[in-house]
Design brief:
By secondary structure, the protein is mostly beta strands. A hairpin with a 4-residue loop joins strand 1 and strand 2. Helices cover about 5% and strands about 45% of the residues.
């Protein structure tokens, strides 16, 4: 039986692309199809609250989307049925994803933000991208809300197993 706790949502299926069954997906990680002879990669699509495995046959970047070709999705009509579905991947596969393959800061939604002394600040609830700089929206255990600037150079460490992100938070930012 498929256990939802073993999977993490990595994005959504967008519109059908072309006539051969490709879909444009908004993903938070970069994917690539397995090479010949490698074990196949299955993504789970959530259909009516059930995980349905789809074998990944190919993928390629297109703008800010990823074009995906699934096995047995062979035309635009079949691809259109998948539009809007959440995409999930096994957490064990995510353990093998390099930090550089994380394509969207939203990947860290749900992670605990730690300061440079590894003290918890709160849970990353959302990404605020309406300003010139992207910000983590973090809620503390005391229900205080913080907006923390996102900059790769401030990230000190990422622990996917424990879902923590350690940052060098600028002095005084938590006092605002």
């Amino acid at each position: 039986m498929i256990d939802a706790a073993d999977f993490e949502q990595i994005g959504f299926i967008g519109k059908a692309h072309g006539i051969k069954g490709e879909v444009a997906a908004q993903l938070q990680v970069e994917l690539c199809a397995p090479e010949e002879g490698e074990e196949p990669l299955f993504l789970m699509l959530e259909i009516n609250k059930l995980f349905v495995p789809y074998k990944l046959m190919g993928c390629r970047p297109k703008g800010d989307a990823t074009l995906i070709k699934f096995d047995r999705v062979d035309n635009a009509e079949e691809a259109a049925i998948l539009q809007g579905l959440p995409v999930w991947i096994a957490k064990e596969i995510l353990q093998d994803v390099d930090d550089e393959q994380i394509a969207d800061w939203a990947f860290f939604t749900g992670y605990t933000l730690l300061d440079s002394q590894k003290q918890p600040i709160g849970i990353i609830e959302d990404i605020e991208d309406t300003t010139a700089n992207e910000l983590f929206l973090v809620r503390s255990a005391q229900d205080k809300e913080y907006l923390i600037p996102i900059a790769a150079e401030l990230i000190l460490g990422i622990d996917r197993k424990h879902q923590t992100l350690e940052m060098d938070i600028p002095d005084g930012l938590l006092d605002i």
